Amino acid sequence: MGSTTDKYRVWKPPQELPLLNFVSLTDDRDGFRVVTTPYQAEYVITSHITFHFKSVYAYRNIDESHRIGTQALLREQGVDSSNLYIVEPSSWLEWFFEEKLIDLPWLKHFAIYTADDYIDVITPSEPTITVSNPPS
Predict the structure, then answer these.
(1) Which terminus of the chain is more solvent-facing, meaning fewer CB atoms within 10 Å of its CB: N or C?
(2) In this predicted model, what pLDDT tens digit does every residue of 89-99 receive, in sequence order?
(3) Domain residues of the chain, as ranges?
(4) Cβ proximity of 33 and 55 under 8 Å
């Protein structure tokens, strides 16, 4: 990936959200959805918090134990107490532009970093967020 150093900015959606645990990813014709639940050490699912991206150019999900460098960078930048970010500049987005051989300046790199999974998304717009009770 290029020479860009990632800069993490805490992303604050309209509603305040707790720290998160990962539940699932879905990528289908209705878009890309990341389902999470409020963080609890016992991993009790009390509600679902769903991030729905209508249009996604790329995404990746990496176990947090394989993102030690990212964890160090978040601490270094003083933003490690959150788990929602916009990454700008982004080495991953720079790599994406190099692969496409075109710069699409409206694309953004969103990061949803839960207790166990680090999910990165390249998309033109913020997701909608819904909070609901989990299916029984």
Answers:
(1) C
(2) 999 999 999 88
(3) 8-132
(4) no
